[in-house]
Design a protein that fits this description.
The structure is a single chain. This protein is of the alpha+beta class and about 450 residues long. It has a single domain, classed as Orthogonal Bundle (Cytochrome p450). Helix content is about 45%, strand content about 10%. It is built from 16 helices and twelve strands. The chain has a five-stranded mixed beta sheet with strand order 1-2-8-5-3, with helices on both faces. A three-stranded antiparallel beta sheet has the order 4-12-9. The longest helix is centred in the middle third of the chain and has 26 residues. The chain binds protoporphyrin IX containing FE. The site of protoporphyrin IX containing FE has 23 residues, from helix 11, helix 12 and helix 16.
Length: about 450
C-alpha cells in the first residue's frame, strides 16, 4: 500500500484572503453578504481572541483552543446559542439544534440511541447502493463529461438521509424539501446579517418573504410525512417512531406535531447538506492531487479486494479517513458557529460582558498560523496515526465540541468514507477547467461557481 508520509505539502488550494485589519461600515455589510469569511480579519488567524465593535454592541472572534474549551465545555452553561436560535428558530422551532437547557437535554437523549456507532455501521449497504445509483448515472454520460459534483453529492446524501433516518414512501416529499431548502440557503444571507448585527425587528429584511414561503413549504412537506406515518400499518424502528414515542422525563409530555416537525426538519437539513459539502470538497482536492488519489485507490483495493465496501472495511480505510479529515480542516462544512455570554464571564485574561457574541470561525481556527504548519496547504499526513495525537481537541473541530457536539458525527464519518471509497473504486475524476472554486460561507461552505469535475466511469 502506498503511504505518503512526511511529504512536503506543495499544493495550496483556493482560500479566502483575510483583510489585514477589521473592516467596518458599508464595506463590512457588502463583504458579509458576499461571503462572511471575507470579514474575518487576519488577526483571527494569528491571535486567540479578537474583539470587534463593527457588528452589534459586543462581539469577539475566538480561535484559541483554551478559550474555546471554556466556552464550549467548561463554562458552557454560561453561554447560550441565542443567535443560532434566532436565525434557525423560524424554521426549526425548538428542536434539538435550537433548544437549550432541560428542553434540549431530553431531546438529545431520545435521539442519541439512533447514533450508536455499531448500529450506524449497519447503514453501510444503504450508503453504497445510493452511490452505485449515482455511478450508474455517470456511466451513462460520455466518458470525461463534466458533472455537477456539488448537486450530485447533495442528491446522494439526501437519498441516504431519507432512506436511513426518515424514510417515506412518497418521493415527492423529498423533492419538495430539497427545493425549499435550496431557496432558503440562497435567501439566508440578509437574515444572517440582521441576526448577527442585532438589527431591530422593524428594519425591513430583503428576501424575508421568500424565506417565509420556503419555511412554510418545508414544514408542510414534513407535516405530510408525519401524516403518512400515522396512517401506516407497520412502524419501522427509526428516528420518526422514536421521536413519536418519546416522553419528556420531567413533564411526561410527548412531542406535539410542531415539535416533531422541528426535529425531523433538523435532521433532514443538518444531516445531508453538511455531508454533501464534505464530499464535494474532498473530490475536488483529490482531483487536484493525483498522488493522493493513487494512494487511496490502492488502499481501497487492498482493503475491499474489489468487493462492495462493507462495515468491516470502514476502520481499515486509514488513509482515506486521513484525507477526509484534512479536507474538513481546509473546508469545514460548517464554517462558523457562535455563542452568546448569558452573564459576565472570564475568558482567559478577558472579562466578557453579558450579551457579548462569541463568533467561532471554524474555518479560521483550522488555518491558524500558530497551530498549523503551512496552514493553507493540503497535507493529509497531519492526520496520520503518528501525527494526529498532536492536534488538540479544540484546534480542529469540524463537528463542534462539548455537550452540543454534532450528534451525527459518527454517521457522517461512516457515510463519507463509504461513499468516497465506492466512488474511487469505479470512477476517475479530474478538473473540468481552470475554475478554482473559492470557499463561500452560506449556512454551509459552498464552492463559488459550483464544482464541475470531469468523470470517467468505465
Ligand atoms: C460532515 C458532516 C457534518 C458536519 C461537519 C457537522 C457539523 C456540526 C456542527 C459544527 C455542529 C455543532 C454546532 C454548534 O455547536 O454550534 C453540529 C450539530 C448538529 N448536527 Fe451535525 N454535522 C455533520 C453531519 C451531521 C449529520 C449526518 C447529522 C444527522 C444525521 C447531524 C445532525 C446534527 C444535529 C442534530 C446537531 C445539533 C446537536 C445538538 O445541539 O445537540 N449532523 N453539526
Amino acid at each position: 500500500m502506498a503511504a505518503i508520509v512526511g511529504s512536503t505539502p506543495t499544493f495550496v488550494p483556493p482560500h479566502v484572503v483575510p483583510p489585514a485589519r477589521a473592516i467596518k461600515g458599508l464595506a463590512l455589510i457588502a463583504g458579509f453578504l458576499r461571503n462572511p469569511l471575507e470579514i474575518v480579519p487576519q488577526d483571527a488567524y494569528e491571535q486567540d481572541y479578537v474583539a470587534f465593535n463593527g457588528l452589534g454592541p459586543r462581539f469577539a472572534w475566538v480561535t484559541g483552543p483554551d478559550l474555546l474549551k471554556t466556552v464550549l465545555l467548561d463554562e458552557s452553561d454560561k453561554f447560550s446559542k441565542s443567535v443560532q436560535i434566532e436565525f434557525f428558530g423560524p424554521l426549526l422551532g425548538q428542536g434539538i439544534l435550537t433548544s437549550e437547557g432541560a428542553d434540549w437535554r431530553w431531546q438529545r437523549q431520545v435521539a442519541a440511541p439512533m447514533f450508536r456507532r455499531q448500529d450506524l455501521l449497519s447503514f453501510v449497504p444503504v450508503f453504497v447502493s445510493a452511490t452505485h445509483r449515482l455511478l450508474d448515472r455517470w456511466r451513462r454520460s460520455p466518458a470525461g463529461t463534466p458533472q455537477r459534483i456539488e448537486a450530485d453529492m447533495t442528491e446522494v446524501t439526501f437519498d441516504i438521509i431519507c432512506a436511513t433516518l426518515l424514510p417515506s414512501s412518497d418521493a415527492t416529499v423529498g423533492l419538495a424539501l430539497e427545493a425549499s431548502a435550496d431557496r432558503l440557503q440562497r435567501s439566508a444571507m440578509w437574515r444572517q446579517l440582521y441576526v448577527t448585527a442585532h438589527m431591530p425587528k422593524w428594519v425591513p429584511q430583503p428576501g424575508a418573504r421568500r424565506i417565509r414561503a420556503a419555511v412554510r413549504a418545508l414544514r408542510a412537506s414534513v407535516g405530510a410525512l408525519l401524516t403518512e406515518r400515522r396512517r401506516a400499518l407497520s412502524q419501522p424502528d427509526d428516528l420518526i417512531r422514536r421521536l413519536m414515542a418519546a416522553h419528556d422525563p420531567v413533564t411526561g409530555a410527548s412531542m406535539n406535531d410542531e415539535q416533531l416537525i422541528d426535529n425531523l426538519l433538523t435532521f433532514y437539513l443538518a444531516g445531508h447538506e453538511t455531508t454533501s459539502k464534505a464530499l464535494t470538497w474532498t473530490l475536488y482536492l483529490l482531483a487536484c492531487s493525483p498522488q493522493w488519489t493513487v494512494a487511496l485507490t490502492e488502499e481501497i483495493a487492498e482493503v475491499t479486494g474489489g468487493k462492495p465496501v462493507s462495515s468491516d472495511h470502514i476502520d481499515k480505510l486509514v488513509l482515506t479517513q486521513q484525507v477526509i479529515k484534512e479536507c474538513m480542516r481546509l473546508y469545514p462544512p460548517v464554517p462558523t458557529t457562535s455563542r452568546q455570554a448569558i452573564g459576565d464571564v472570564r475568558l482567559g485574561e478577558h472579562l466578557i460582558k453579558a450579551g457579548t457574541s462569541i463568533a467561532i470561525p471554524i474555518y479560521a481556527m483550522h488555518r491558524h498560523q500558530k497551530r498549523w504548519r503551512h496552514p493553507n496547504a493540503f497535507d493529509p499526513t497531519r492526520f496520520s496515526p503518528m501525527n494526529e495525537g498532536d492536534i488538540s481537541r479544540y484546534q480542529y473541530m469540524p463537528f463542534g465540541a462539548g455537550p452540543r457536539i454534532c450528534i451525527g458525527m459518527a454517521f457522517a464519518m461512516i457515510e463519507i468514507t463509504s461513499i468516497l471509497a465506492t466512488i474511487l473504486q469505479q470512477a476517475k475524476l479530474a478538473l473540468a477547467d481552470v475554475h478554482a472554486p473559492l470557499p463561500v460561507a452560506r449556512i454551509t461552505l459552498h464552492p463559488k461557481g459550483g464544482m464541475p469535475l470531469r468523470v470517467w466511469v468505465p
